[in-house]
Task: inverse folding
């Protein structure tokens, strides 16, 4: 099984659009399309993996409804997304987020869905290979 990102999905994570659109460019460059992944595996079933608002994994999209977590340098350092971007991109974005949180310019809508970020996918090729593997697919070029 592969846990990966669907770069062809239209929905954009609000945090990326509002604060660090450079992530979109970087992720599109380093992730293969799902058809290529499935083809390389000799065929596969692909399922959507919606991220719940209280997802405990600390990777960058898991905080879509808890943006204050992105203010923590330790959380950003543990994120390959933030660790890859230069400070001159990340630091101004974090300052804008901090100001928006302090002024309440950013506040969760009362009816935000329980699972919103839907760009992640599980690719299942079980039965085609003799072992099970789970891997966050990310191909830097």
Result:
């Amino acid at each position: 099984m592969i846990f990966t990102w669907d770069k062809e999905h239209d929905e954009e994570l609000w945090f990326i659009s509002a604060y660090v659109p450079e992530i979109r460019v970087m992720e599109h460059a380093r992730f293969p399309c799902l058809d290529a992944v499935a083809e390389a595996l000799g065929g596969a079933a692909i399922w959507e993996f919606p991220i719940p608002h209280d997802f405990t994994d600390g990777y960058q999209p898991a905080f879509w409804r808890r943006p204050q977590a992105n203010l923590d340098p330790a959380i950003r350092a543990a994120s390959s997304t933030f660790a890859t971007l230069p400070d001159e991109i990340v630091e101004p974005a974090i300052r804008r987020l901090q100001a928006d949180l302090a002024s309440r310019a950013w506040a969760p809508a009362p009816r935000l869905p329980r699972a919103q970020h839907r760009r992640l996918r599980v690719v299942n090729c079980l039965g085609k290979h003799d072992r099970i593997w789970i891997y966050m697919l990310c191909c830097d070029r």
